[in-house]
Structure formats: C-alpha cells, structure tokens
Design brief:
With about 425 residues, the chain is of the alpha+beta class. The protein contains 9 helices and 16 strands. The protein has helices spanning about 1-30, 70-80, 115-120, 125-140, 140-155, 175-185, 190-195, 275-290, 385-415; strands at about 40-45, 55, 85-90, 110-115, 200-205, 215, 235-240, 245-255, 255-265, 290-295, 300-305, 315-320, 325-330, 340-345, 360-365, 370-375. β8 and β9 (about 255-265) form a beta hairpin.
C-alpha cells in the first residue's frame, strides 16, 4: 500500500512539473523584445547611419524585385541627366511593355521633361516611362540595362542582376532584400531622388499628345488619409507581380534615426490589404521602439591624458579630446550603459605638438559595430629647452672627440 501511494505521489509530481513547465514556455514567448512576426518571404530593416541590421528574414535569398527595380533606373537617370532636358518618346521604347503592366499611356513622339518622366516612374510606377528614360540615357534599352548591372557591381551587390528596366518578370532578373536596401541607401543620397520618390502625388502638364495626367503614389505609407498611412515614412517604391508578390523598399525617419526597410514576397489578405505595408509598419515600429542613437562622445570631450617626455614641464601633461561626436545605435535597454573605448595612440608622439594635432583615435565596439573618432591635442606642447641644451652640448662633445681622434691619428701617421 505504501509503495502504491508513493508511485501515485511521484506520478502526480511529474505531471504538475510538466504542466507548469509548459505554462512557463507559453508566457516566455510573449516578450516585448521579441522580433515582429511578418508574412513576407524576405525582409530587412537597417539603420542608415550605422548600417546595423535590426531585422533580417532571408535577406540574402535571391528574389524577384518587380517594380522596385525602378529605383536603379531612376538613380542612373538622375546621375546622367538634367531634370529640365526634353525627351521624345520613341515607338520602339513603348511596344515591348506587356499587357497588364502599369503605364502612363505615353504615345510615340510625345515629349516630356526628365523630371516629368521620373515622376511617372516613381509615383505612378509607369513601366513605359522606364523604357523611354532608358533609351534616352543609354542610347538603347539594352545599353541602359548594361549600365544598371555596372552600377550594381560598383556598389558591391553580388546577388543582383537586371535584365530589364522596370521589373518585368524574368528568371534572370533578381535581387535580395539586403542588396535592395543598399541600393536605396545609395539612392537617397541624391536630393532629387528623395523628393520625387517621396511625393504623395504628381501632375504632369498637357503635352503635344495628351492632356494633364495626375497620379497618387502607389506607396500607401506616404498618402495621408490612407488606412496604411505611416507618417514617419519619407520615401519608397512599391512593386508587384504574381511571382514576386507584394514588394516595397522604403525609408522612415523618427527621433534622429533613419531606417531602410525592404519587403519582398509579401501577400494579400482576404480583404485585399497588402502585407508589404503592414509588414513595413511592424518592422519600423519594432526598430523605433527598441533602438535609439546614443551620444557617446562630443567634440571637445577629454578622453585621456598623456605625458610628452621631451616637452617642457609646463606643457608636457597633455589632455586628448574628441574632434567629432560619436553616435552609436544601441538597444533601449542599454541606454544607461557607460561604454569605454580602446585608445589607439600614434607611435611617434613627441614635442613640438600644436593644439588640434591628431594624435590617435578612440574606438568603441558596440554590438559588433565599430565606432571611432580622432583624438587631438588640447594645447601646444613645446620642446624642453634643457633637453635641447643637453643635446647641443652632447653634439659639441661628440664633435670634439671626433676632431681629436682625427688630429691624433694624423699626428701618429706623420711620426711614422
């Protein structure tokens, strides 16, 4: 009987242990620090100042980019043209657009400025505008595609290849979420790209072939009043094909942080809401709510002091200060952490030293990211006159010894 009771007790204990262990697992998952759950097949979130990757889902997997391709088309046009140049659309540049792909209904021999075509390209996502621009800039569409792939190589993007100018679905036309993020980071350095790709709408004046055209951005994140409006987004480009899914590359700015977000292979919900917008918002909220830029150094802050051995007593003690500020991206849980740098001094420090001379650098390693700034002298350091005097006396003494040696050597030779 005692053995029977003992077995029941042991079994009960094990059952209770298993139950509570499972309960603990369930509650542990619901943590505010957990990464967001998104439906896209690939995505990435990057801080633009530090290039720190805050979120990565299959970011290096080759994917179809659809119309996000157009950011490369746009930046090459901006780097090779003036916005006021006039372009005449050729029939050849228009006839290759497949049925069902978005166009601005550009007609052969219709004339536009470069800026108007870029507005149709980036705001309305007009595929015919891409080909018109490509032919104008490259001399032919094929030549322009070669320019696109040359730029890809210059940017060091090893998992991207383009076969058309606008995102036509083709097997050898691919990129990755990571490569697309790096492209966007490059593109937004151009102010005209930022302005046009961040436009909520555009109006194209009447041309020699058509009346006024007006368009609203396909990027719902920047359209006020839209259910997907996200006020922090400043620039973006959408894309969609059946094979590529819903795609979006965008940037958002908040609390002195600018993030780049890429969504590839997004889905459509039952009520036709694209996950490229909801996924982007989820990632931006995660990034802005969990990370901050921490100011860890200011210009003029003293970082260390050294003794300059050959300096005068009044100037030999030298403070070294930062010449620039350092901002590091840190998890909000580490905002109060006091980070300490590695001081790397030059090997040839000696007087004289002028105020502001760079004597080394301070390096911080935070979460695998290196941050560094030059450190400089805070005052002039003068040569020690005593040392100079000793050196002069030493030099005279050595010269006298050499002279005497030569004199007595010559005298001995004469005596011989």
């Amino acid at each position: 009987m005692k053995i029977y009771v003992k077995k029941i007790f042991i079994l009960s204990f094990l059952l209770i242990t298993v139950l509570f262990t499972n309960l603990n697992i369930v509650y542990a998952v619901d943590s505010p620090a957990d990464s967001p759950q998104i439906t896209a097949r690939a995505a990435i979130l990057i801080d633009n100042k530090t290039n720190k990757i805050l979120y990565d889902k299959s970011a290096n997997e080759k994917m179809f980019p659809a119309s996000t391709t157009k950011i490369m088309t746009a930046i090459l046009v901006l780097e090779n043209c003036d916005l006021n140049e006039t372009v005449t659309a050729s029939y050849d540049s228009l006839i290759s657009i497949p049925e069902g792909y978005v166009t601005a209904e550009i007609q052969g021999e219709e004339q536009f400025t470069i800026e108007q075509l870029l507005e149709m390209l980036l705001v309305h996502s007009a595929n015919d505008a891409a080909n018109v621009l490509a032919e104008y800039v490259g001399g032919s569409i094929e030549s322009f595609i070669s320019m696109m792939n040359t730029k890809v190589n210059e940017l060091g993007l090893t998992n991207t290849h383009f076969t058309n100018t606008y995102g036509l679905q083709e097997d050898n036309h691919y990129t990755t979420a990571y490569d697309l993020a790096k492209m966007m980071q490059y593109c937004i350095q151009n102010d005209d790209f930022r302005r046009i790709a961040g436009s909520v709408s555009c109006s194209i004046p009447a041309t020699n072939k058509s009346g006024v055209r007006s368009y609203t951005s396909t990027n719902q994140l920047i359209v006020p009043g839209n259910s997907n409006y996200y006020s922090y987004v400043t620039v973006g480009k959408t894309g969609f094909t059946t094979e590529a899914g819903s795609c979006l590359v965008s940037c958002a700015y908040r609390n002195d942080m600018e993030l780049t977000c890429v969504i590839l292979g997004g889905t459509l919900s039952d009520d036709n809401v694209s996950s490229r917008f909801t996924d982007s918002i989820s990632l931006y909220e995660y990034g802005f709510n969990h990370f901050s830029l921490k100011n860890i150094a200011n210009p003029g802050d003293i970082i260390t002091s050294i003794e300059v051995s050959n300096a005068t007593p009044a100037t030999k003690s030298l403070d070294l200060a930062f010449v620039d500020s350092i901002h590091a991206l840190v998890n909000n849980s580490n905002l109060e952490t006091n980070y300490l740098p590695e001081i790397q001094l030059n090997s040839d420090i000696s007087a004289p030293i002028a105020e502001g001379d760079v004597l080394g650098k301070a390096v911080y390693i935070i979460d695998g990211i290196s941050y560094e700034a030059d450190i400089v002298a805070t005052h002039n350091v003068e040569n020690s006159q005593l040392l100079q005097f000793v050196l002069q006396i030493g030099g005279i003494f050595i010269a006298l010894l050499i002279t005497f040696e030569i004199f007595f050597s010559n005298k001995k030779k004469k005596n011989i």
